[in-house]
Amino acid sequence: MVDVILGTQWGDEGKGKLVDNLSSKYDIVARYQGGANAGHTVKVGDNKYILHLIPSGILHPRVTCVIGNGTVVDPITLKSEIEELESRGVAVGKRLKISSAAHVIMPYHRVIDILKESSSGAGKRVKIGTTGRGIGPAYADKYSRTGLRIGDLTDRKVLRDKIRRNLAEKVPYIRHVLGASPLQVRNVLASLGLENFYSDKTLFDEKKLVRFFLALGNYMEGYVENTQLFLNHAIKNGKKILAEGAQGTMLDIDHGTYPFVTSSNPTAGGVCVGLGIPPSSVKKVIGVMKAYTTRVGSGPFPTELKDRTGRHLQEKGHEFGATTGRPRRCGWLDAVLVKKAVAISGITEIAMTKLDVLDELAEIKVAVAYRGERPVYRKFPGWQQDTSSASSFDELPLKARRYIRAVEKLVGTRISIVSVGPGRRQTIRVPRG
Ligand code: GDP
Ligand code: IMO
Ligand code: MG
How many helices (H) and strands (E) does the chain have? Predict the structure, then answer.
């Protein structure tokens, strides 16, 4: 049996917190798409963990964590994530499984991602405001059928041939299409701590890349397996699996605000392809929805607030990216957009997060329809009371409960959980209305 937790907006809805909160009920937590562009925050007491690629179930010692075939893995950042967790006393060891079919993010993917987004030499290119983690270029190679997979990293000859063929394409692309000088490439590599791979003559030192990634392949060997098979066995044996989405519905390559999207499918459809499991195994789909909306990077955001209220949400909500540190754009909840997310992913229940961030507002708005491009708002009176210490639905102010019940109706799905703070205990079950 597989349940899913996914984002209904533009990411950063609080998926990490929710996954951690529900993990004790599951045997396995699995990431099915995206890569280290994700930043999932889990707070345990005074300890804060930001997970990028490792599933947010890792803090539960009995949970097995899977990085599925649909993800793109940067082995360099993965290794440091494992090492950081272990140095903080979280035993990763045998609990982590990485799909041999997941694609590898290479240093040239990161360089291309960053150069395409940089202002110098970028000409008229559309700037997405990516996380610079090489996600788009790695998925592009996957679909061009030229990418490297995790399983390729243990065979020196395969690895060398693939790297050679890729460099033959990437180097002229970087030089002549992106128009980057060798110095620029060197600077980008240096900014990533990857200067070692720079070569004056060929931009990237093939030998060093092969040697280094072969070593990373050996390092990961104990974690790598056919996770599709593992997960299907687990389903047959009655194990409970939680699929952890990264990004959000509006960043979906098919269903989001294209081209201002990521390069994968965070929606529920992505779960089956990204883990290699049948649609019939999926039961609950929990959509995580912030009580307002945020977006980091470029692209349309109809309910965005560029005024004092927007700044208040940003400050009170600490709305700065967990991966890049960039300030997140803030605005009102868009029920029209969430309703679309509910339809696309067949969301069966919603977890509303960051309700406490609205505590001080005198008036709260929700977009309930569109007139042309412009949102039509419904107004709600603010409760202007602290909710962060409430431990049950009944302890919430009446106006907050009314807001929750109204939003349930607007998005057409029950809200089963309300989160009133980053801590594990600041999570409230909502009775059926
Ligand atoms: P994710 O990418 O969906 O996992 O979300 P992020 O971790 O990027 O961003 C959510 C941020 O909000 C994190 O800093 C969380 O610790 C924090 N957070 C989660 N739930 C709540 C909540 O209910 N209230 C408040 N104030 N903060 C929350
Ligand atoms: P989590 O899982 C919020 C955004 C980037 C950019 C666009 C494309 O923490 O919710 P990419 O690097 O994926 O090519 O960038 O997508 N983006 C996110 N925004 N949360 C995320 O992940 C994001 N991952 C990517 O800001 O606009
Ligand atoms: Mg995040």
Answer: 12, 21
